[in-house]
Amino acid sequence: MLTLLAAAAAVQPVATARVTFDRAGIVSTTASGMADIAAGRRMRADDPVRVASISKLVTAIGVLRLVEAKRLNLDADVSGLLGWRLRNPAFPDVPITLRLLLSHRSSLTDRIDYVLPLDADMRAVLADPAAWGVDHAPGTWFRYTNFNFPVIAAVMERATGERFDRLMDRLVLAPLKLDACFNWAACAPGTRARAAVLYRDGVPVKDMDAATACPVTPARDGSCDLASWRAGRNGATFSPQGGLRISAQGLATIGRLLLGQGRVDGVRLLTPRSVALLQKPLWRSDGRNGGGEDGFTCRYGLAVAFLATPEPGCRDDPFGDGGQRLGHAGEAYGLRSGLWIDPGSGTGVAYIATDVPAAPGVRSAYSATEERLAAGR
Question: pTM (2 decimals)?
Answer without folding.
Answer: 0.96
